[in-house]
Amino acid sequence: MLSALAALIGGLAATQTPWGRAKLAALAAKAIHDELGLDATFEQVAVRLEALPPGLTIEASGIAIDHPEGGELVRANLLRVRPSLLALLRGHVDLQTVELDAPSVRLVVRDGALVNGPTLPSSEAGGPVELPFGRLVVRDAAVRVDVEAELGGETVSLVNGELGGVDVEADASGAQLDVVLSRHLPFGDPRVQSDRLTLPGGVLRVDALSFDGLVDLDEGLASIESFELASRFDAREGEDESPTFALRLANASVPFDLASDARPRWAGGVGVELDLGLLERLPLGFELPALDGVVKIDGRLEGGGLAIPDGDVHVRLERVKIIERYGLGDFVDLDLEIRDRVATIRPDSVAQLHRDGGDIGLSGQIGLDLEAGFPLSLRVDIRQLQFANLMGQLGVSENSIAWWPLAGVGELEGTLVPFEIEGPLRIRSTNFAVLKDAWHAPHDPVFGVAQARIQGRWRFDEEAASFFELAFDTGRSYARIPMVYLGYAGRLYVEGHFERLDAADVSPLAGFALSGQGTADAWVEGDFDTPRVHGNVAMRDFQFDGYRPGDIRGDWHLSSDYWGFEMPALQVTKGQTEYRVDDFRMNFQGGGVKLTGHLRASRFVLADVYHALQLETDERYEDYQGVGRGNMTLDFSWGHPTDGPNGTFASAMDFDLVELRIADFVTDRGRFRGDLLSRDLGIGLDASVLRIDELLLHKGEGTIHVAGEIRAPMQETPQGPRYLGPAQVSLSVAAGDIRFEDTEDLHESMPELRGSYAVLGEITGTPDIPRANLDVALSG
Fold it and tell me: Is 528 helix (H, G, I), strand (E, B) or coil?
């Protein structure tokens, strides 16, 4: 006992001499070489004695630790070691506690193996690993990483750079290490910005890093209680924000050799958050379209080696867009059950459209086989979908004027790589409406369709979302829609053919009732921003707000501002009447309706006109019949601040009268020129001004001239015109050389009467009760 104590005292005294410090440095270097297979050098070694409990601390400066072949591993300014005194007296160093302050650690990894790291010893050949220290403390380390691997026959740099501010505490027990690692630099620490790791996806900045777990060197297994990595990539040109990447592990076990499928298998809770824009930076081995948005993965997985794992995972896609335009909605939530290389999408998975525009249920399977292209089988339950929100989601417009609730079911089958999925689609449409303004503004419908059923197929691939072979059926109307093509690069194409079209399905139009049956075709071509929308229509017995213009046909196209439509030449047949409306336009801008055109009649029959205007049973018009030709302008406005409740109508008229019959008084030919301004069509002449520039009638060798106006008295107010009474007639009449025998009533009652007469005077009063003040001259 006394001799051991004397040896201890002598040994401690020797550590304070140059010889003793050199001896300790040599012993430490030898221990590092023997225990870890590394070469170590120290510039200086100092020993601090401790009384209670008795011991010593060895401090070394200028430390360099290298791998004999892999080169530099550690550089440090200060290494602090607390060795075992008894081991020291026996002539070797037992590193009970090792502390490193602000070291620089270089890690070189080639094809998954650390090539410049320590070789851990075992107690005997084939025995368990024995760690050469009891506790390891590393403070504020700077870790330089250089990771390369062979990919596709080429050497690829996977990670290269430096990470500072790393703290490590590891307690060893046998072959096990209880490790706590963290990197929590103070806010604003310049190393957060200066440290950089270069990956294939760009320059990575690590904002937070932590690890808490148990490492078993014998088993080659890490039992991870928690691991967290929060990082971001430097933004590239054109990126508004820095893409982020976060990884979490909890209650996980991970073997050192992940590439091996031998036991033990890896398992644990996994959480990932990734900006999808990073995917186009990575060498995936296959091409993806440009993606924006965030994917979040949370679940528990178990696997062997690099094979597809099994487990239960929740995947959430948030604000995902394809090619910066075509969105997948506010979010997509997928609950996945992964078994035997098949991911089953549970029925509680759901997608929500842009701006809360719809709820879509998802279920199906994804085969996790790259060689087979990741085959997909998907059922889509469209519980509610708003077309207006879909147009915003696809980047067409946030201000769609189409309001279209949809519901139904679809199926999709195909592959994800290349992206090609297709299947049948069945949809119910209710309360479809085209609005006067954007759907999210206060609005009134222009027209709508109460209900319809749509059946066909849909397809999504790397170029477009398309719907084809569609049948559109309202019960009264039926259309074939061969194609609806929504290209990701902006191309748009729609083709539809109404084989049976009932105008009542889209009634009312801007408040006006419609009826009639016929056919129509429509095409949409171009791009989403400026599509060309055009087609043709043919309707029998078309009726518009009670008016019955007849059978119509013609080509149409949407206006350049998309607020209305135009028909260059609208052809109309009404009984024996044939006419054409050139440059017919209907516009809904400003909250109202504006209708313009130029009517040209090659032949009109007044009886057809009365029927079109629903006047055929009005006794006031029975005595006025005739045939003519000519033209008139059309200018109708409704729903604007200055319009009456039934609209404003203005027209300039010029007609040749081939024949005009007033009761039994028949004229040979004639002409009418004049203008009409009606402030309320529902009231008629009592809200109008009719100016007759010329009404010339020929009766045999005689003529009749009528001119003047019929004007309704009214007062203009800020709320519109105020009508003050019935219209007033002010017409001048001049007739000459009218023979008695050409005047049917006179000739029938007095056939022997010969000669002629002339008339000069005026007509006043009202249209219902006119008063005539006439001078009559007889001759002959």
Answer: coil
Tokens 């990073």 found at: 278
Number of domains in the chain: 1
Q: Give domain status of residue 334, yes or no.
A: no
Asked whether residue 23 is domain-assigned, the answer is yes
Sign of the torsion formed by the C-alpha atoms of 6, 8, 12 and 17: positive
Range of the domain at 36: 1-93
Q: Let me know if residue 38 belongs to a domain.
A: yes
Residues with Cβ within 8 Å of residue 387, at least 6 apart in sequence: 400, 402, 403, 404, 405, 406
Q: Is 127 exposed, middle or buried (0-12, 13-18, 19+ CB in 10 A)?
A: exposed
pLDDT digits (tens, 9 = 90+) for 1-35: 445 445 555 555 555 567 666 776 777 788 778 87
Residues paired with 88 in a beta bridge: none
Examine residue 18 and say whether the peptide bond preceding it is cis (omega within 30 degrees of 0). no
Least confident of 154-158, 199-203, 486-490: 486-490
Closest listed residue to residue 141, CA positions, set 107, 190, 184, 103: 103
Are the C-beta atoms of 385 and 360 separated by less than 8 Å? yes
Residue 491 contacts by C-beta under 8 Å, 6 or more apart in sequence?
A: 464, 485, 526, 527
In a domain, 70, yes or no: yes
Q: Which residues contact residue 283 at a Cβ distance below 8 angstroms, ignoring those fewer than 6 apart?
A: 151, 156, 200
CB 439 within 8 A of CB 402: yes
Largest Cα separation within the chain, whole Å, is 175
